[in-house]
UniProtKB/TrEMBL annotation:
This is Fusaric acid resistance protein. Coiled coil: none annotated. Its main location: membrane. It comes from the Bacteria. It is a multi-pass membrane protein. Keywords: Cell membrane, Membrane, Transmembrane, Transmembrane helix, Transport. Pfam families: FUSC (PF04632). It is found in: Cell membrane. The chain crosses the membrane at residues 96-114, 120-140, 147-165, 177-195, 334-355, 361-379, 391-409, 415-434, 441-459, 471-489. The keyword Cell membrane applies. InterPro entries: PHBA_efflux_AaeB/fusaric-R.
């Protein structure tokens, strides 16, 4: 038995990979070929991205060394921060990074100037400022949020770097800004060289994405009306639609200015979401026939939404001169999570300062800089706890690779050409890892911090002590941030689901108020984005609970759409006053009691149908639609909606 264990290696690592397997690979051991498929079987686009980003990083490093900057390793870090799969993402992230850097440098100089000899006040103000940046970023979307958190950690890097030399804070701020702009320019240059015919490719990607979403929605709507689509299928379609919506901004940037393709694309996706909500409501009115598998004819009302989506897709494919169309999809703002995010970051910076103050650690300033930087990188993640685990593992791999380079490879480098070759090898591997979801979390920290830990310079003398202090400050900072994310107001998906349910209930009641200006598209977009966020983080929630929650949210989306329609009908001056008053009474009860008001839906429907007699066709058609909306609301009542 002992011989078998030795031969299989189980005595050292265990059947599930042991401690090292769980630490570096995140779970039980799989085949090496499957784990390294991202390296052994990369696609052409993966290779192009990895080589392009690596060349940009090395180019920025060589230029920084040629300019004899004091810390050239920060330039390639910037390249990996802004390097994205598409040119539009890189452009969006680069411009917000430059804006955040400039503002952060100004704040860093101001903090040093205000508190040159008062460390307690300095760190309290720095902690509050970073907390405000991380909390405020929760209210923004895409790379606008990144720009705000970048302002926070840039100010921390500049300010902590000048603690020992406050008179040189301006020079330090200028140097940090130079590194970042240099990295952005190098990444942009290589992206242009590696991406010819950018506008044509961007338009093709956008149209392929929209047409694919349109076909998927058509298929699911047919299943919805016939009763064959479950909550899991609806949730997956919504996830795909919101993912496509998040990519529109980047495609529009690649397509160039003076185009409204992004507005038309958003409108097309909003029409598709409305089709899903309308189809679900129509399915409630269809007679239930257990075991029926035949396709049910689609209601005529759905074709109007289909036509709207097609028209906007056509406008993306063939833009018209003088087009002034505007459309924007909004998402929910998480006030409580913003407060928690800000408090967590503020407490973390203060706790890090106390660690430095108590221990007198020589690398304490670097430790604080790394803490602020990691907080900024993880602050805008939906679930920082989940994101921090692979970030820590990638940091361990980064320190391991940096040690090999610092002790054995870099001392033997005698020419820039050799430096390029040696760095290109490991950076290309990191770039390939960044393209795969299973390894992207590791590559996130590995790619950015590898040049910082290696620390190549022009005339700097390599010191083993300096490397260990820098690497230790980095690893302790990452572990410290991961620890605080788990202890200080940790993100819990179950509490987030309960908060979202309460938000939906309040928002749903408020839709019926006469003064409400929430549109159907706004309601559906906010609800869909909120639900999709939960689905992305609800892997640990039992499936029956998750499916029941999804059904509840789908009902709320459908009901909200019909409440907004009834609210608009109640304001139509063409309708008889008696009919409008009947709808207004129902809406008042809705605002007061919420979904309990559906008990009055049948009575109000009968009242509207009686008002149709002898009225013009247009009035009868509007009242008929309002009656159908009330019938759908009544059909939802036995479900115990919220």
């Amino acid at each position: 038995m002992r011989r078998d264990n030795v031969m299989t290696g189980q005595s050292m690592v265990g059947p599930d990979g042991g401690l090292l397997g769980r630490l570096f690979f995140g779970g039980p051991r799989a085949s090496w070929r499957s784990k390294l498929s991202w390296l052994l079987e990369p696609s052409a686009m993966d290779v192009i991205f990895a080589v392009r980003s690596s060349l940009a990083a090395v180019l920025s490093l060589l230029i920084a060394m040629g300019m004899e900057l004091d810390s050239p390793q920060w330039a390639p870090l910037t390249v990996w921060v802004v390097a994205q799969s598409s040119r539009g993402e890189s452009l969006s992230k680069a411009r917000w990074r430059i804006a955040g850097t400039v503002l952060g440098c100004c704040i860093g100089v101001a903090l040093i100037a205000a508190f040159p000899q008062a460390s307690a006040l300095f760190f309290c103000c720095l902690a509050v400022w970073i907390g405000l940046c991380c909390g405020g970023a929760t209210f923004l979307e895409s790379y606008r949020a990144y720009g705000l958190v970048l302002t926070g950690f840039t100010s921390a890097i500049v300010a902590t770097g000048a603690i020992a030399q406050p008179d040189e804070v301006f020079d330090i701020a200028i140097a940090r800004g130079t590194y970042i702009i240099l990295g952005v320019v190098c990444e942009a240059l290589l992206a242009v060289l590696f991406m010819p015919t950018l506008q044509t490719q961007a338009r093709k990607r956008l149209l392929d994405r929209l047409n694919g979403a349109f076909q998927t929605v058509r298929h699911v709507v047919s299943d919805l009306v016939s009763g064959r689509a479950d909550a899991q299928t609806q949730g997956q379609v919504l996830t795909d639609l919101m993912a496509a919506n998040a990519r529109i901004e980047f495609d529009a940037l690649e397509m160039g200015p003076r185009t409204h393709a992004a507005d038309h694309a958003h409108a097309a996706l909003a029409a598709m979401i409305m089709v899903l909500a309308r189809a679900r409501g129509m399915a409630l009115l269809e007679p239930k026939n257990e075991g029926a598998q035949a396709d049910v004819p689609l209601p005529a009302s759905l074709y109007a939404d289909y036509d709207i989506a097609r028209q906007h897709i056509e406008a993306c494919a063939h833009p018209k001169r003088g087009d002034r169309f505007r459309f924007k999809m909004t998402s929910r703002r998480h006030a409580l999570e913003a407060v928690e995010n800000g408090i967590r970051s503020c407490v973390g910076i203060l706790a890090g300062w106390l660690v430095w103050e108590v221990t007198g650690w020589p690398a304490g300033a670097g430790f604080i800089s790394f803490v602020a930087l990691v907080y900024g990188l993880l602050a805008t993640r939906e679930n920082p706890i989940v994101a921090s685990t692979p970030f820590l593992k990638g940091a361990l791999w980064c320190a391991f690779a940096a040690a090999i380079y610092a002790f054995w490879i870099m001392p033997a480098v005698t020419a820039p050409e050799v430096l390029v070759v040696m760095l290109m090898i490991v950076m290309t591997i990191g770039g390939l890892a960044a393209r795969k979801p299973a390894t992207a979390g590791y590559a996130f920290s590995f790619n950015m911090f590898l040049p910082v830990l290696i620390g190549p310079g022009n005339q700097s003398r390599f010191s083993e002590e300096a490397f260990f202090n820098n690497a230790m400050a980095f690893l302790v900072a990452v572990a410290f941030v991961c620890w605080t994310y788990r202890l200080v107001l940790p993100f819990r998906v179950d509490s987030h689901m309960r908060r979202t349910a309460r938000w939906v209930e309040r928002r749903l009641k408020a839709l019926g108020a006469p003064g409400s200006r929430v549109t159907v598209h706004q309601w559906l977009a906010e609800s869909a984005s909120s639900l999709v966020r939960i689905l992305r983080n609800a892997q640990g929630v039992p499936q029956p609970v998750r499916l029941a929650y999804m059904q509840t949210q789908f009902r709320a989306m459908t009901m909200g759409m019909h409440i907004v329609f009834l609210r608009d009908v109640a304001k139509d001056p063409v309708l008889p006053l008696s009919a409008r008053r009947g709808i207004q009474v129902f809406l008042r009860k809705w605002v007061q009691t919420g979904t309990d008001a559906t008990a009055w839906a049948g009575m109000t429907e009968g009242w509207l149908l009686r008002q149709m007699q002898g009225k013009p066709f247009e009035v009868q058609e509007t009242l008929q639609k309002a009656a159908i909306s009330l019938r759908i609301l009544a059909a939802e009542r036995p479900q115990d909606v919220l």
